[in-house]
Amino acid sequence: MNNQPASGYPVLAAGDHFILPGIFRTELEHRMGGAVAVSELEFDWPDAPFGDVAEVSEASGTEDRLIEALRGQKAVVTQLAPLTRRVLEANPQLEIIGVSRGGPTNVNIAAAEELGIKVVNVPGRNGIATAEMTVGLMLALSRRIPESHTALAERRWRGEFYRHAEVGPEINGSTIGLIGAGAVGGHVARVLHAMGATVLVFDPYAKPVSLDGVATLVDDVDDVFARSTIVSVHARLTEETRHIVDAERLALMAPGGHLVNAARGPLVDYDAVVAALESGHLAGAAFDVFPTEPVDFDHPLFTLLDKGYNIVMTPHIAGASKQVAVRAAAGVAEEVRRHLAGEAPLHELTAIGATAARA
Fold first, then answer.
1. Whose C-alpha in 57, 126, 207, 272 is 20 to 30 A from the C-alpha of 356?
2. pTM: predicted TM-score of the whole model, two decimal places
């Protein structure tokens, strides 16, 4: 941790190996210069997985280390610091917490509210990155890109991928269904539309005008499965959306369809996906998220992968880009500037509203 300068509003930049403390510092000082005194703390994520810390989740680091680093700080900007009730009660001088992500699961919002600490976040920070990755997963799946690459790396020429039974569909001309059309799904819809797809969207909260001329909103999620060649999941994780992709809905798809999930693992019943792949009803599936993370390598998905099924998997990296790290840091830095200037926050969270942001 860097020594704190002698003057200026004290802010802790609690970064990690993705959003580096120095990125937070740069964005804070760009907006406020010497008006802020930035200290730095760096956690081990993603080299070490995040997890539960006391009552918060998706957190990196320890309460004790954070309590010590927060001594004398009036603000903290972070992605994953474990801002538990114990941490907050040990640092009553805190005025504002800037969480550089959409889902502030690493912060006890209720405790912060009780203690009069403002909590702000950066919704949609990785929408474009995740949308681009989603389209990339679709292309990798339909065009067999990972398998083809692996074969060549192993010095094998797999010309059979040109067989009619092996080739997949183009985006152009396909009907693609999206479950959810927020910051990620909405951008996916626009990209797919530009590529010539017919896009169907199920999202009870989407504003029709936001997708006017780009996608068709449908009222019944089952209709999306019944009409789509490819289904991609972009919903927030709630009790209502848990396992929104299940055996019954997969069965509604025409044989030979593809499924993509780069949102949250529990949105999909992965055992149902395995059964649909084994039966041949699904021709392929692509995942950036899983039921548990880090993944259980004994899960049947990996058995199918070893057997040559058309499965594409990446380790929850859809939201990772250079621009996301800067955009996230810039978002919380702007919130600290507004706080110091007495301006209204752009994205303030309350205990009630936090549940909706946890996606």
1. 272
2. 0.88
What is 9-125+321-357's CATH number? 3.40.50.720
Are the beta carbons of 39 and 103 closer than 8 angstroms? no
Asked whether the predicted pLDDT for residue 359 surpasses 50, the reply is no
Cis peptide bond prior to 204, omega within 30° of 0: no
The alpha carbon of 133 is separated from its chain's Cα centroid by a whole number of angstroms, namely: 11
Neighbour-count burial of 295, counting CB atoms closer than 10 A to its CB (0-12 exposed, 13-18 middle, 19+ buried): middle
CATH 3.40.50.720 in the chain is located at: 9-125+321-357, 127-313
pLDDT in tens, 242-259: 999 999 999 999 999 999
DSSP 50: -
The predicted-structure confidence for 172-203, as pLDDT tens digits, reads as follows 999 999 999 998 999 999 999 999 999 999 99
Catalytic residues, which ones?
A: 264, 293, 316
Fold of 127-313: Rossmann fold (3.40.50)
- For the record, the structure tokens of 158 come out as 């797999």
